[in-house]
């Protein structure tokens, strides 16, 4: 494994979702030395509560750190990535979102994107049931969202349906868009991943929250996974069904199984950055470098992005 630069100090850019990564930083022995947020009083309050040395509003005020976690809106990702191009970076998804036509000539060498769905125990179980090299896989992904934030249909898709889709692409490979249909509140996609097919039906409205249903068929195997988030409650996934028979007891944790999956995802990236996992090992375990991360934008926008990673 190649020699790596020491990773000891980190900064979080964006103190809303960004604080989800605090546990992984602590478990990995890293010092969180700076918080950055457009809401400076919020950053200062969190820094005081957590005994973090620096809180600021500007990227130029961040002290020297080894790792930067970017949890700002996707439209700002490229600016933040360019500013910290010499540091290791964990960027929240989507990498570029609807701004994916603005690709850099070269990505920073130590840039990874956090797509955590593959780290769910339910996803890991289904990974053991499906063998993509042993015949075509057919997938139906249905996602529905009704939350108060003001996003467009395609932004909501990248904020929510991209999670289970990232896992499916990790499992099945690079996508090619076969068809796309949109209306005011519905998006339908058909994707090809080699001989495999993914059909997606994404809708806005309905009951409050986020709802995912995945049906996977390979040969005689019919697998189903359902999960949902209801505001004020933790994520809950129903038992994985194989030909109608439950394969587990579902997935739920009081501290939220989705947050735990994100912690596992971040910890894996940090292990790689610390030299404990090779790049190939991280990719095989569900890591997303820039090229792989842009498969999500590629699915939605129908373009193949030639990304230097």
Explain this structure.
The protein has 309 residues and is of the alpha/beta class. It has helices at 22-27, 40-50, 77-83, 121-129, 153-172, 257-273, 279-284, 290-301; strands at residues 9-13, 31-36, 54-56, 67-70, 88-92, 111-114, 138-146, 176-182, 186-193, 196-204, 209-218, 221-229, 236-237, 241-242, 245-246, 251-252. Strand 2 (31-36), helix 2 and strand 3 (54-56) form a beta-alpha-beta unit. It is globular, with a radius of gyration of 19 Å. It starts with 8 loop residues before the first strand and ends in an 8-residue tail after the last helix. The relative contact order is 0.16.
Radius of gyration: 19 Å
Oligomeric form: single chain
Report the β-strand fraction as a percent range. Answer: 25-35%
N-to-C SSE series?
A: EHEHEEHEEHEHEEEEEEEEEHHH
State mean pLDDT (0 to 100 scale).
95
Largest sheet: 10 strands, mixed
- The structural class is alpha/beta
Show unreliable segments: none
Tally of alpha and pi helices: 8
Distance between the termini: 18 Å
The helix content, as a percent range, equals 25-40%
What is the total tally of β strands?
Answer: 16
The dominant shape is: globular
